[in-house]
Amino acid sequence: MRENPTFGIIGAGMSDILAAIKLQEAGYGFTVFEKADRVGGTWRENTYPGIACDVPSHIYSYSFALNPEWSHFASPGAEIQQYFERVAHSYGIDDDIRFSDPVVRCTWTADDRWELETGSGHVETFDFVIAATGILHHPKLPDIEGLDSFAGPMFHSARWDHDVPLDDRRIGLIGTGSTGVQITGALAPRAGHLSVFQRTAQWVVPVEQVAYTEAQKEEFRTDADQLEELHENLQREFNDGFGTSILDGDSEMVDGIEARCRAELAAIPDDELRARITPTYRAGCKRLVISHNWYEAVQRDTVEIVTDAIERIEPTGVRTADGLLHELDVLVLATGFKVDAFMRPMTITGADGVDLDDVWAQRPSAYMAVTVPDFPNFFMLNGPNSPVGNFSLIQTAELQFEYAMDLVGRVVAGQLEQAVPTDEAARRFEEERVEAAKGTVWATGCNSWYLDDRGIPFAWPFPFERFRREMAEPRLGDYES
Fold it and tell me: What is the Cβ-side half-sphere exposure of residue 414, based on CA atoms within 13 angstroms?
């Protein structure tokens, strides 16, 4: 291995910007490949009304680029997108990104390097590949009869058409996950009538939308130690406190969350509405939804929570199982994403011609959520089995990157010929992960996007301290020597 290896980075979202900056600081050569015309990933793709971070803004920041300018405790999506654009520009990585040129093929070659080919036909080789393509970018459309027959404007929440007028219109919204709840809060005051089609009631945790004052932001600007302390305290409380506690469905933390939600529900005077939006499963089984305006929005006279199953879509609206046609001007699909797609539709071919699609034919998995057998020197950030359910994605990506760079250093030093886990290590980890996942709150009886085809949660099921420990020191015995 050369002393100065090169890196191909697939994507230009949150994790990819992190990787590019850290590689630049380490003096490594790299190229970033991005399918779109600017950075941002999820925050570039999703621009729907009401979009906001559902974790504290000050932990949704790189540890090396803390932001004193956050406007709110949980800031709007456009502000987060601007943050990533500003950080990428300030570190000067824009010139290292090939925009509007998606990777279509990634092949391990006979000379032990990765060959990447883009949609434009550009071909480039690298010693290592970092794939951080995310999971919230392939929209999932509902399997509903007549979906294409709707005569008015219809779009997925991640493909929002901002040219469509919404004020005083009859709007239909399919979905009540985090996105659906945020859209409901934003559109309820604007729509002439908003029909929210709910398949399953959600545990919606009420929070206050706290705005930082100019005085507070000035303190953050002038006192770097205070800003760093806030970041560290929030991170510790979120990951080691809240995030780890809710893994156990019997924890006092989950009891407290339920009690908080039930108190908000109890204050709703409409018995029928209250019954419709009260969940029947344990809090935390689905991803908890955070909102400052959901309970207020659903009590508006112009908002209707529809719980009858959708029978079909018709040119003028949505027909439900009770025979009623809900006439609409606009139809919005807040129906989530294909969370198992990861690098797809890229063709990724590893050692001895192994195709990643074949390896993941049943479901995606990765050793320690970062590497895959037969795919040498190939690392994923926020890939399969990562702590995406209840921990800070930015801290997760930072730890995973450090883990990858530890392995890179050992390859460069000759301690490892290649960074590739053994089949046995990957199998052992997956078996342990699956058993642990069966005991988490996500496996307590609800249906959610956290579940794989077997009904087993695919996310990291261990405490964050375990993740931190694993990322701090790779188990070299689990890698081919």
Answer: 1
